[in-house]
Amino acid sequence: PRLNQIFVGASDGVNRILYDPELSTKGALLSTSKIARPKDDLSILLASRAPQGSAGITGPILTPHALPMFREDGTSSSTSTKKRQREKDRSDPIKSKRPEPPARGIKQGGQSGAGLNFTQFVVDGTIKNKNIAGRDPREELFKYSEGKSYVSKAYEGDEEVVLAEKTAEEEEDEMKSR
């Protein structure tokens, strides 16, 4: 067998691979046999300056006496300050990414109101026609149909053209009767 290895997962989240380097030829040995990348000078310098067992800097740098222009927002540890900052951010439409509410009237500023004006035009036209209380419905329908014939306009100027002397059915009947 090529794979003489045991993979162990412990309850504390540690995974281990147990193998015999003389008997095993594949599996975990494929990744361990690769040559480590050579480190560049900068990474060697940073590793030598960092404390033993650390990754250099582990978190944000706290500067309590920084100038206001260089101070980052949210660096205060007080919960009431964070709460006030959240409320300010909530009221700011850009930070809270609130969509722009529908505008009333003509828009001013950088945005075009062309679509809004067209929409208002259509809505105003339909609202005027909706006031039908106290009207006779038959008269309203006749108002649309008087003097309008959409079908006759489609066939205007057409002449009846005879494509064949007989239809296919007539020819079949004629053949059967012979």
Automatic annotation (TrEMBL):
The keyword Repeat applies. Residues 52-117 are annotated as: Disordered. Residues 86-101 have a biased composition (Basic and acidic residues). Keywords: Repeat, WD repeat. The keyword Repeat applies. This is Uncharacterized protein. GO terms for cellular component: nucleus; site of double-strand break.
